[in-house]
Amino acid sequence: MAGASRGPAAVPPLPALMRAVAQERYGGPEVLRVIDAPLPEAGPGEVLVRVIAAGVDRGVWHLMTGTPVGVRLGIGLRAPRERVRGREVAGEVVAVGPGVTAFAIGDRVFGAGHASFAEFTRARVDRLAGIPAGVAWEQAAASATSGTTALQAVRLLGLTAAGDPADSVPAAASKSLLPDAAGRRVLVTGAAGGVGSLAVHLLRSAGAHVIGAASPARLEFARTLCDEVVETGGEYGEARLRALAPVDGLVSTSGIRSYRMLCSLLADGGTAVLVGAEGGRGLLGGFERQLLAPLLGSRDGRRLRALTSVETPELLADLGRLLADGRLRVPIHGEYALDATADALRDLQEGRVTGKAIIRIGAEADAADRSPRA
Ligand SMILES: NC(=O)c1ccc[n+]([C@@H]2O[C@H](COP(=O)([O-])OP(=O)(O)OC[C@H]3O[C@@H](n4cnc5c(N)ncnc54)[C@H](OP(=O)(O)O)[C@@H]3O)[C@@H](O)[C@H]2O)c1
């Protein structure tokens, strides 16, 4: 496994049971229980990871609550088929499934786990990458889903340095981890949130001038991240946003649902990337905005691009490099113990989490503590 750090190859015998955060029915954080669950087994193309840190991303909330209700068609109509929650993971490989050659026991990995709010999770190798030396567990865990989403959003903007022709984008973007966005003004809505705060960091590393939009409770935090902030909501929130036009790019992770409004904020040739927004209603909870964006495509030379994010090994490896060289730094709101996972989800929903929350589950194993496998 190139570029990643590897721990000792021997691990203690694995237990039969593990502690995990599970639910029997859909609902708020009150449905979560810490249970003793059987240890998962790594199937073909999978590894078993001892979880050290798990990130709390918004998708976990949707799976826990079964909202918008349209998602239940895929995850279970009456109750979630997968009872254990969690996705973002950073940890150590403790077993490899049939056919796996990409990772070995002892590798430090991060990415999307099958159910990571647990002492162990299985994970597909095509949703993982190695953690580069020097990158902290919580940074890796917190960026697995939110970071791959933010990185894809930044790349989809197709930014070039002011003065560069826009058709130089594909060549430039393919050669470097981030575009050269020097001199470009970019608006990020939900700038204090998980994806938003990471997009802000990446865009500033790319040289852009970043304006972060946030609601009043999160505005001061957004100010610590952005070049400039704008307060959303209230009587004049829309007018304050309009006063920012024209911007060269827009990453939408909260608020603004109207295509007309999005386009009206963009400069000629500008792009708005639609990531998502909370608070939507109906079967799809506002996700229809993502579905319709490609149909609208572009308006008057302004592009709307919907993002459906996937944690690929390539994106995760790029994120690992950005974390290692400091061009990405995840603002960690706080760490919660596994027993306090429900509190983390409650804080997320009640707007108390800025940046990312982490569930700290295991400690890094010390080589001296390990005995050879029986
Ligand atoms: N397209 C994809 O592939 C993809 C991938 C990841 C996430 N997403 C979606 O993108 C959005 C942002 O994700 P995230 O992880 O950044 O979420 P997040 O951290 O929970 O929230 C992002 C922002 O949404 C607003 N917000 C938070 N709680 C809210 C609530 N209960 N009601 C209304 N607004 C609320 C806040 O912004 P304000 O300051 O404006 O209030 C917050 O900063 C979510 O809708 C998520 O489901 C999509």
From TrEMBL:
Keywords: NADP
One GO molecular-function entry: oxidoreductase activity
Matching InterPro entries: ADH-like_N, ER, GroES-like_sf, NAD(P)-bd_dom_sf, Zinc-ADH_QOR/CCCR
Limits of the Enoyl reductase (ER) domain: 27-359
Protein name, entry field: NADPH:quinone reductase-like Zn-dependent oxidoreductase
Species per Swiss-Prot/TrEMBL record: Schumannella luteola
